[in-house]
Amino acid sequence: MSRRHVIAAGAVALACAFVAVGFVGVASYARNYWLYRGFPPPRDPAYVTQPGTQEHIQVPSTAIGGRAQDVYVYLPPGYADNPTRRYPVLYLLHGFPGRPLAFLLTVRMGVVEDELVARNKAQPVILVMPFGSTGTFTDKEWANGVGQGEGWATFVARDVVRAIDSQYRTIATRSGRAIAGLSEGGYGALNIAFQHPNEFGVVESWSGYETAAKIRSIFGEDVRQLDANSPLLTLPKVARALRRQQTFIWFYTGHGDGDVRENRTFAGDLRRRHVPHLFFEPSGGHNWALWRAEAEAAYLAAARRLGGA
Among 2, 24, 134, 295, which is least packed by CB within 10 angstroms? Predict the structure, then answer.
């Protein structure tokens, strides 16, 4: 091989190496962005000497066709060291497209809890994050659909709650349970809580909505299915139960969010029906920066109202 050919071959090899490294770099960046959405990975500050621990379980459910569904659990600091203590539970529902661990990796709820508990500003709470679909990009709306094995609301309110109460030291009453979610998960939290008013004492919606999306694959052709899964429309039927049990509804929508008007209407209906609630409009839109910024307030809103051990 001539010197010219050797140089050419070396140049090609070098170019291929740069391309390969480029692809690896792009893939690494894309993965990190998907996990953290441009934020740094969550880390406890130095003053946190006892962090919580993450666990992964699977919950089988006849409501969703017998599937064994992924559920992630964040046990609070000190859980293992206090074998007789029982803890309240905060259930967290992801958005669409979404995944459960976004609450820990992007919203950093685990770090928020570690910090607040370390500073004695809030009681420890078990965080539970179920996966609410058959795939990251498959929309189920956290609702009971018309198809067979599509009972996603029942999966959460019945099967996940039962599994958590049986496997962990929980306060197994509505006064010890909160349900929250972001975006579609906020809608799901409201919808599930209204359909199961005896299950959750605190309900939170972060940039959620209150009218069911017109998705035929989920709700079918019958408009009554949409109405039955729209908290804005079902509120009159459950308001009395919510008042009687003093269920507290805490929700916000960014001032620049497209659903802010619907949330204002919902807040007005809650006020007229004397349902305990707090609604506010922080600056911002429909994005991770807002949910991350409000994570501490969301944790405190639940922890301060849930029954303690």
Answer: 2
Dihedral sign computed on CA atoms, order 193, 196, 197, 201: negative
From the list 125, 133, 142, 253, the residue with the least C-alpha distance to 189 is 142
User: What are 215's two structure tokens?
Assistant: 């998705």
Closest by CA to 266, choosing from 216, 215, 191, is 191
Residues 32, 57: one domain? Answer: no
> Are 260 and 286 within one domain?
yes
In 3-state terms, what secondary structure has residue 277? strand
Model pLDDT, residue 6: 36
Q: Which residues contact 103 (CB under 8 A, 6 or more apart)?
A: 92, 94, 109, 127, 129
- Say if residue 223 is exposed, middle or buried (CB neighbours under 10 Å; 0-12, 13-18, 19+): exposed
**27 and 60 inside one domain:** no
Residues 11 and 141 in one domain: no
Alpha carbon 190 to chain centroid distance? 12
For the chain, percent of residues with pLDDT exceeding 70: 89
Token code pair at residue 289:
């920066």
> Is 50 exceeded by the pLDDT of residue 5?
no
Residues 112 and 251 in one domain: yes
DSSP structure class, residue 160: I
- For the chain, the first-to-last Cα distance in angstroms comes to 80
Q: What is the residue range of 150's domain?
A: 50-303
Q: Report residue 210 as tokens.
A: 């209150």
Q: Give per-residue pLDDT as tens, 266-286.
A: 999 999 999 999 999 999 999
Contacts of 212 (CB under 8 A, 6+ apart): 141, 143, 187, 191, 219, 225, 226, 227, 229, 230
Cβ(300)–Cβ(122) below 8 Å: yes
The whole-angstrom separation of Cα 117 and Cα 66 is 37
143 burial level (CB within 10 Å; 0-12, 13-18, 19+): buried
pLDDT digit string (tens) for 121-130?
A: 999 999 999 9
| Per-residue tokens: 233 | 């429309």
Please count the structural domains in the chain. 2
- Please check whether residue 16 lies inside any domain of the structure: yes
